[in-house]
Design a protein that fits this description.
The chain is mostly helical. It contains eleven helices and six strands.
């Protein structure tokens, strides 16, 4: 029995490692696979993974020296280290899951209980995961969240002994994408050899970035019409007898189109629409013809909102000879088009309809 003392003392002198799991993502009901891998890798790096093995030999609580029972220093060292690992595991579990391990006494008990709860190949658990795969779509999720949600369920099914074939995994990922991704889906489905999940994820990320860079169309349709200044005379530099005549309403230059009246820019007091006055409103005539004396002709504010539509009107002037003093035409347009950008101080490409 005397030979046990040096070994026990040697084990007792083993340094105690304070395990820090502050960087470990807390365990919840859906991330057991990655959580268990991270925790096991951490403890394995410390050389303490044996504390997670329920079949590992635990030192005896007592030893016998000269026929006298005494506390075993090796057990004391093991117990202190196991307590630290146990505490670290509890701290790496979310509050909603901690109730599952309330009866666990050692780190190995915690590990085995969690494995039986979240990695047990029960029929109901497998059926639930497969149902989630069928109904998992991108929707408003990002590509990262969408793909991660599917791959995590692939891994859970593999842990439960139900490995999803690689081609089926690719079909699940492509099948839940919206119509915006149709072009990249057709390209990937046309391959003879399906892409790896890493390659597929990368291509979807690139296509998502491409979609985000596309400028959304303006909510206001812009219409631009042709503006023409036609000069029918080939003698622009020659003087004509009437070129210095003063202009009067009764002596207009030949070929000159009178200036169109400026459109009404106010709001109608009856229908609330811009562009015409109340006396020209069609609703006024219908109300007068109905002969109703019980309803007021003018509505009370606030008036119904009307959408603002930018417009470009046409303004033309025909010069049939003579150097007529140039007229400045006010077309009331909100947008203008030109073939020479030097004519405009501020300009931008026209993306509206014809």
């Amino acid at each position: 029995m005397a030979e046990q003392i040096p070994e026990a003392i040697n084990l007792a002198q083993t340094s105690i490692v304070n395990v820090n799991m502050a960087n470990v993502t807390k365990l919840n009901s859906s991330n057991y696979i990655m959580w268990s891998r991270q925790v096991h890798a951490l403890l394995d790096g410390y050389g303490l993974a044996k504390h997670l093995d329920s079949s590992a030999t635990i030192p005896d609580l007592q030893i016998t020296v000269n026929d006298i029972a005494a506390p075993n220093p090796a057990f004391e060292a093991w117990n202190r280290q196991d307590r630290l690992i146990y505490s670290a595991l509890i701290g790496a579990i979310s509050l909603s899951v901690q109730s599952v391990v309330t009866r666990a006494d050692t780190a190995a008990d915690v590990w085995v209980t969690l494995a039986h709860t979240y990695a047990k190949p029960s029929r109901g658990h497998i059926k639930q995961l497969k149902h989630q795969l069928k109904n998992w779509t991108k929707g408003t999720r990002t590509i990262d969240d969408y793909v991660q949600g599917l791959t995590s369920r692939f891994d859970q099914l593999a842990l439960l002994g139900k490995v999803i074939d690689h081609e089926d995994q690719v079909e699940y990922i492509l099948g839940g994408l919206p119509d915006d991704y149709k072009s990249v889906v057709d390209q990937l489905e046309g391959r003879d050899i399906p892409p790896t999940l890493t390659e597929l994820h990368e291509k979807l990320l690139n296509y998502e970035a491409k979609l985000l860079t596309v400028t959304s169309p303006s909510p206001y349709p812009i219409t631009a019409n042709y503006v023409n200044n036609r000069n029918r005379s080939s003698n622009n530099n020659k003087s004509t007898p009437n070129q210095h005549q003063s202009w009067t309403p009764n002596s207009q230059p030949r070929g000159f189109t009178p200036r169109a009246p400026r459109p009404y820019l106010g709001r109608c007091q009856i229908c609330g629409v811009h562009g015409h006055s109340a006396k020209r409103c069609s609703h006024l005539h219908s109300m007068v013809s109905s002969g109703s004396n019980n309803q007021p002709l003018l509505p009370t504010p606030p008036y119904p909102p009307s959408p603002w539509l930018p417009r470009a009107n046409i303004a033309t002037m025909n010069q049939n000879g003579g150097n007529i003093t140039p007229w400045i035409l006010d077309s009331g347009a909100t947008h203008h088009i030109t073939s020479d950008l030097s004519n405009l101080a501020l300009h931008q490409p026209y993306n509206g309809g014809e």
